[in-house]
Structures are given as structure tokens and as C-alpha cells.
Amino acid sequence: MDGKQILTTDHLTPPRGWSWSIARTVPRGEGIHALAISPESGTVGPSTLDALPDLQILHATSVGTDHLDEVAAAARGVITSNTPAYCTAEVADHALALVLASVRHLPILDREIRRGQWALPTRPPSLLADTTLGLWGFGPIAQALAHRAIALKMKVLVHTRRPIDDHSVRQVSWEELLCSSNVLSLHVPLISATRGRLDRDALSRMPARAHLVNVARGELIDEVAVARALRDGDLASAALDVLSTEPPPADHPLLSAPNVLLTPHAAWLSDRSIHRPVQRFADVLAASIRAGSPV
Q1: 184 and 159 in contact (C-beta within 8 Å)?
Q2: What pLDDT, on a 0 to 100 scale, did the predictor assign at position 23?
Q3: Which residues are known catalytic residues?
Q4: What's the rounded Cα separation, in Å, for the pair 263 and 70?
Q5: Largest CB tally within 10 Å, which of 99, 113, 195, 255?
Q6: Is the pLDDT assigned to residue 44 strictly greater than 60?
Q7: Which pLDDT belongs to residue 294?
Q8: Are residues 10 and 79 in the same domain?
Q9: Domain, as residue range, for 170
Q10: Same structural domain for residues 104 and 69?
Q11: Quick check: pTM over 0.90?
Q12: Is the preceding peptide bond at 247 cis, omega within 30 degrees of 0?
């Protein structure tokens, strides 16, 4: 686990003969039989696995496992697991907060006041009831966000590869999602087919002055293209909880782009969710012991 995170093990009792250890970097060496790691802590690939000769369980403290090389782990007999659905409500709430802040121009208004400008925006915000929210992906988080948005009278479009059985939203093509969404919110896993798909061409198809929200993975978007679209005024704002590099370097293009609202990969966090990844890790370990694993 990353020591910079505020996950704790204080309320958990490790199995007999075991002890917990929280490291600031991905550990290496002998004697480590089970490892839990967050996406923010780093990646685990073949070289890291080779440096952990005793590892038998590799656990993602997140829903996504794109920071783990599951193929390389399986080839070395390492069991991989994740933490499913532990923060669905939290991320949906956070995404909705980013949507509302974007539509109501809150970051822009706050910035102007701090600059000494007490004035109404030149472009008045739209009513939520007149706003179309587009969802790329329709897993549990996107579904929870859709239900929240519909309660606020927003129209919701969805693009996903599988058919959906939810008559409160409308399933559309990728092209229609881009062309018809006033706010586009991303909710797909990071795989080869989704990496960088929201590029310069995709952004150019969005309505003028649309808003972008991302609580999924930073690598889904071309960050240079997003920064350019913001500077050119083609994109009204970007509200992002994730970036391709976390924390971002000082020269990251979105740090200097206008109308960007950033949060530090915190959408998952609440006083309830904070302990769930470690509890899940303990449950996986306990199940392995009960199953007679040499762990």
C-alpha cells in the first residue's frame, strides 16, 4: 500500500503468524507473500514480480486492475484480485459534483472573484433540465450517476458495447454521443481499445462549449488535445479526478490550461469506503488460507 494514502489496518487483525506493513514504494525482496497496491502507488509488471519471489497474492485496492500485469502474474502462479463495487456511490457522487460545478461555471466564477472581478459570467450557464449528459460506459458507477442526473431532470445518453435494459436513458452510437452531449463523462476501463480514444478528432465532434468529466482513467484522453481545446475555447471546461501521470509534473499541459478543475484521484474516498480495500485484501487472504493455499 502507498504510505501517502490514508488507508489503515488499525481495525483489522491479521491471520496468526502474519503482520501488515505499509510501504511508500512498491516493495521488493523475499518474504512478501501477499501485496495490495493502488493505481497511484505504481505498476506491477514482470520485473517487479521477478523481484518478489515469494509473492502468491497480488491485490488491487481499486476496481480497475490496469496497473497490474495479470498475464505475467498468472504465468508466475500469482493470484490476482481486485476490490469490486467498493466505492460506486462515492464516485457517482463525485462525478455529479464535477458535472454540476462544470455546468454552473463554479471554477470560473471562483477564479474571477479571486482576481478581483465581482461580475456575472459572459456566458450564462444552462439549466440542468436543458443539459444532455453523455456517458461513455454504463457500469455500476455510470448507472448510479445516470440515476442522479435523471433525478435532476437531465437527459442522459449512453454509449456502451453491450445492449442495456434501462429505459430511463438512451443508448446511442459513439458518434451521436460525441455530437449530442453537453457534458461528456467517462466510465470505461483502460484497455487498448479505449486508451487515448478521446483525442483531437473526437473532441472536435463535441458541441461548442461542451464540458468534459473524467473519473475513470487519465489515459482515456489525449491530455495535450484537451488542453488545446480548452485554450481555443472549443471545450468549455474539463473536470478531472484522474490524470495519465499522478501526481502530475509541473509542466503537465492541463495545469496551465484554462477552466480546468482537478481533484487528486479522490472520487473513491468517503468515511465508509476508506477501509474497504484493506478489508477486501484481508478477506482474499483469509479465503486463500481457508482453501489450503500455501500462503
Answers
A1: no
A2: 77
A3: 217, 246, 265
A4: 28
A5: 99
A6: yes
A7: 54
A8: yes
A9: 88-262
A10: no
A11: no
A12: yes
